[in-house]
Specification:
With 161 residues, this protein is α/β, with parallel strands linked by helices. Helix 1 packs parallel to helix 6. A hairpin with a 5-residue loop joins strand 2 and strand 3.
């Protein structure tokens, strides 16, 4: 079970492999799409309604992020990022966040450094082995794209600290 303190002010997450099922679907027109679970989409709404800041740092660029960003007024959106830890550090500095005030969620090699520096680091059960072996990592019960992001948000809102 995920445990987070009431001091969290900002949720910063990777997108593919956390909010999505980590698959890319290619239609007959050659367009790439992603599947999103409505539980995870609702989590963005819940964060907004409850006064949390939200950030997305994605290694890819896609329209789903842009749509969610506009709909839920996501504070920080960074796409096509290779070195996520630099962006994370800039967000921490911009909002003057202490280690007790943010959580980082990621699942792959480009999230590794960010997960290492975050006091509250969360991943999914189907993350890569290197991430799963981070000593302080917390692992959701739900897999990516199937309510894992919502699980973290529900923990924050229900005060499971």
């Amino acid at each position: 079970m995920i445990s987070l303190p009431r001091t969290i002010k900002m949720v910063i997450t990777d997108f593919d492999g956390i909010v999505t099922d980590n698959c890319v679907y290619i239609n007959d027109n050659g367009e790439m799409t992603r599947k999103l679970n409505f539980k995870d989409i609702m989590a963005f709404s819940l964060l907004q309604k409850n006064g949390y800041k939200t950030g997305i740092i994605s290694g890819e660029k896609n329209k789903a992020i842009e749509i969610l960003s506009k709909k839920f007024n996501i504070s920080e959106v960074h796409q096509d990022i290779r070195k996520k830890v630099d962006v994370l550090n800039s967000i921490i500095k911009k909002y003057s966040l202490t280690p007790e005030e943010y959580v980082y969620i990621g699942d792959d090699v480009n999230d590794f450094d960010s997960l290492l520096i975050a006091k509250y680091a969360i991943t999914v059960p189907n993350a890569i082995k290197k991430v799963l072996e981070i000593p302080h990592i917390q692992i959701t019960e739900n897999i990516s794209g199937n309510g894992a992001f919502r699980e973290v948000v529900d923990c924050l809102l229900n005060g499971n600290d």
